[in-house]
Amino acid sequence: MNDEQIIKMGAKVYLCDEEGRDDNSIIITDHLRNFAKLVAQHERERIFGELLKMHEGASSRHNFYLYAVLTIRARGEA
């Protein structure tokens, strides 16, 4: 997600205005960005767990679960 998308989501739930400012006109973009990263990381870890369970339960021919984990993990590290 980029800053614009994060600010739009923050504004939808009244955390900030459309410019990333709170009620006291303090720019909170850094806080929103950090929160969004934590939420995304948590969700990726949850998905990793589910995909790894599917990989363990599948035959060795079905490595696409493991491939999906590695692909998502690499994207999260970029």
Give the helix tally: 3
Low-confidence stretches: none
Beta strand %: under 5%
Major β-sheet profile: none
List SSEs in N-to-C order.
Answer: HHH
Label this structure with key terms.
mainly alpha, 78 residues
Q: What is the topology?
A:
Layout: H1 3-12, H2 29-57, H3 64-77
Helix pairs in contact: 1-2, 2-3
Q: Concise description?
A:
Helices cover 68% and strands 0% of the residues.
Structure, explained:
The chain has 78 residues and is mainly α. The protein has helices spanning 3-12, 29-57, 64-77. The protein has one domain (3-77). 68% of the residues lie in helices and 0% in strands.
